[in-house]
């Protein structure tokens, strides 16, 4: 079963390229960091030593249960890069598949050895590779492994408040004769919240704030758009899922946001496996943790949504 889970992880689009240089079809992985690597980057990782990166072949090596557990715990390239590259400067480009080994080595050492692109307080001095990775995954132990898509929800204990501003939709699908009467439903576990109906509007502007409590074991935030019908069942106009892990993990790492100046603290990367239109940045702004999200609605012929998320931890 664990081998099957590892194979499923390998098949995700963001894991079908190297985490460090984006070379296609990686054949290696760093089990403790939780990333998939090409041969060239794997060689650099191997030179870092096992205390920093434990490199294994995806096809030749025998993987222990703990190696597989570590990879699955991280979730792959996008999750790892959202931590290790959270503060990657715009003028510091990542290597490309054909980049010289000198630049590739410099970048990888900066990323994992000196952790230049990581939040300073998260930088690790431990020599135990697996412990290092686990300390990143469990920035706060109570949040470890909490955003798996199928994680069971514990509605008896809430750890945060999520305020979602449903800003607007654009190019929504037609479900009546020439238009639609759209409204948005947000779901988090058993909780649901709904906007008002916008009559005859394919480009509706809501700017409505919906509030949801976040349980300790949270899953993705589900968004659905419906067309309101008076005399029949409402028609679906598309859906999307929002991964909350990048925002909540970054927020927990920084603690009280009111003590920090405005800054970027995390990122949810756009991949072919999610509904993002562009990378979604997590910021501290005016003493609050915020994230703007631009979504392409799924399972529908057209439609995009703009949301603003704001997180507040419950004390």
UniProtKB/TrEMBL annotation:
InterPro entries per UniProt: ARF_GAP_AGD11/12/13 (IPR044518), ARFGAP/RecO (IPR037278), ArfGAP_dom (IPR001164), ArfGAP_dom_sf (IPR038508), C2_dom (IPR000008), C2_domain_sf (IPR035892)
Region described as Disordered: 132-154
Family matches, as SMART domains: ArfGap, C2
Residue ranges constituting the Arf-GAP domain according to the UniProt record: 3-128
Domain called C2: residue spans: 143-258
Keywords: Calcium, GTPase activation, Metal-binding, Zinc, Zinc-finger
UniProt biased composition (Polar residues): 132-146
GO molecular function, one term: GTPase activator activity
PANTHER family, alphabetized: ADP-RIBOSYLATION FACTOR GTPASE-ACTIVATING PROTEIN AGD12, OS02G0722500 PROTEIN
Listed name of the protein: ZAC
Species of origin: Triticum aestivum
């Amino acid at each position: 079963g664990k081998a099957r889970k590892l194979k499923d992880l390998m098949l995700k689009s963001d894991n079908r390229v190297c985490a460090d240089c984006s070379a296609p079809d990686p054949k290696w992985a760093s089990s403790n960091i939780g990333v998939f690597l090409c041969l060239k980057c794997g060689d650099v990782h191997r030179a870092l030593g096992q205390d920093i990166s434990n490199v294994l072949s995806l096809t030749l090596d025998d993987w222990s249960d703990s190696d597989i557990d570590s990879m699955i715990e991280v979730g792959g390239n996008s999750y790892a890069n959202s931590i290790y590259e959270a503060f990657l400067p715009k003028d510091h480009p990542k290597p490309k598949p054909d980049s010289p080994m000198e630049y590739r080595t410099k970048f990888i050492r900066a990323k994992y050895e000196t952790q230049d692109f990581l939040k300073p307080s998260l930088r690790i001095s431990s020599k135990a590779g697996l412990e290092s990775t686990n300390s990143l995954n469990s920035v706060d132990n109570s949040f470890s492994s909490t955003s798996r898509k199928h994680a069971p929800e514990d509605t008896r204990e809430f750890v945060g408040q999520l305020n979602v501003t449903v800003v607007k939709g654009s190019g929504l699908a037609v479900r009546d004769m020439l238009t639609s009467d759209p409204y948005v439903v947000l779901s988090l576990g058993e909780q649901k919240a709904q906007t008002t109906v916008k009559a005859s509007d394919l480009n509706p502007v809501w700017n409505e704030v919906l509030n949801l409590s976040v349980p300790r074991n949270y899953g993705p935030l589900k968004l659905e758009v419906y067309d309101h019908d008076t005399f029949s069942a409402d028609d679906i106009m598309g859906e999307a899922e929002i991964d909350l892990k990048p925002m909540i993990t970054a927020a927990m790492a920084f603690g009280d946001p009111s003590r920090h100046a405005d800054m970027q603290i995390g990122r949810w990367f756009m991949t072919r496996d999610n509904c993002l239109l562009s990378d979604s940045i997590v910021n501290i702004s005016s003493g609050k943790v915020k994230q703007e999200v631009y979504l392409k609605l799924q399972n529908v012929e057209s439609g995009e949504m703009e949301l603003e998320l704001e997180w507040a931890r419950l004390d």
